[in-house]
Prior knowledge:
Layout: H1 8-31, H2 33-39, H3 51-66, H4 85-96, H5 122-133, E1 139-142, E2 158-162, E3 165-175, E4 183-189, E5 199-205, E6 211-216, E7 227-237, H6 248-254, H7 256-284, E8 286-287, E9 290-291, H8 296-324, H9 330-355, H10 366-376, H11 383-393
Parallel strand pairs: 1-4
Antiparallel strand pairs: 2-3, 3-7, 4-5, 6-7, 8-9
Helix pairs in contact: 1-4, 4-7, 4-8, 7-8, 7-9, 7-10, 8-9, 9-10, 9-11
Bound molecules: flavin-adenine dinucleotide (FAD).
Amino acid sequence: xxxxxxxxxxxxxxxxxxxxxxxxxxxxxxxxxxxxxxxxxxxxxxxxxxxxxxxxxxxxxxxxxxxxxxxxxxxxxxxxxxxxxxxxxxxxxxxxxxxxxxxxxxxxxxxxxxxxxxxxxxxxxxxxxxxxxxxxxxxxxxxxxxxxxxxxxxxxxxxxxxxxxxxxxxxxxxxxxxxxxxxxxxxxxxxxxxxxxxxxxxxxxxxxxxxxxxxxxxxxxxxxxxxxxxxxxxxxxxxxxxxxxxxxxxxxxxxxxxxxxxxxxxxxxxxxxxxxxxxxxxxxxxxxxxxxxxxxxxxxxxxxxxxxxxxxxxxxxxxxxxxxxxxxxxxxxxxxxxxxxxxxxxxxxxxxxxxxxxxxxxxxxxxxxxxxxxxxxxxxxxxxxxxxxxxxxxxx
Length: 396
Ligand SMILES: Cc1cc2nc3c(=O)[nH]c(=O)nc-3n(C[C@H](O)[C@H](O)[C@H](O)COP(=O)(O)OP(=O)(O)OC[C@H]3O[C@@H](n4cnc5c(N)ncnc54)[C@H](O)[C@@H]3O)c2cc1C
């Protein structure tokens, strides 16, 4: 029998998370709303955000970690709670149905601990992983380069071994949280072979000579500002290698199920947020003597949106269930990333239209979701790359 119900323990974690968001996150979000309107979202507490916002976000991340929410998706031996992928999906939906802002500090994503760090030994874990799990430090995931985004095999950053050290040279691009991370997880070529075994992942602490933060890049989403990272004869010790030499590509892929389910849950939650606000607005707003909700031009696009939201939810749940059941889920997780993020873009756009001019006001908070949806369709594998993966699984 297939059941998508969470185990009682996990259902309790999600209920507790919901209560935490209601009591701790929503009031903060309301208090700081005008600042978010002016200064962007800040995927992380950092960015160019006002110091008050920054402080509150950092504090929230630590509190979420202390309550056991922040890294809940990691196995217990890594300091997490071993929450299933179905649970992870629910968690993201639960948080993001409250919109964008402080919600981004509640659950670990690219700035936080990931499954990839499970390959660290005990000493490395104490230094690099544990402070991330506690929400005390943040990191960044430095894979993309100016000449290599979708095509990871084209990475040009190199690391060569000299005695007990590795020397890294190269440039990374679009690295979220790069300016503020305490350390970077850097992917570099360690052999000239063409195969996927040519990449190795390194841990590089901020302040290491030869490691500089380059240009900060303002994006449409203004999301904590990705940046360029430069490595010029940057020396790191042998203990900086994540797992083994040549395992970089494998480690990058270790996170893929998490990121696709996280993106799916975030998109579903945000679409719910847009629809909740829009239904409330269109039932109150009147034109030509009746609520605009009574015009099919307004209600049908919203009905389509609700249908697509539920379809996205079903697809993402199916993908999460397959991973939890130990089944292959490459096709389903790619579909989840593709469909959920594209769905969010369409839903946010329709919700803005249903609001009329009010929809494009910063304070309505829906245009922010639309801008965010725009980058969600690009990062962590573009929509085209997801289609390419799906096509491959179909034997095309
Ligand atoms: C806001 C933001 C934050 C980011 N954060 C990070 C981060 O923290 N760490 C990190 O490493 N990267 C990060 N990225 C980079 C992101 O992962 C890449 O932008 C993404 O993988 C696409 O690579 P690209 O931009 O080089 O596009 P390209 O690979 O140059 O692609 C250009 C276009 O061609 C299409 N295309 C490419 N290959 C194919 C193909 N085979 N078939 C069909 N179409 C194809 C793409 O879909 C795209 O439309 C971030 C990007 C953004 C926008």
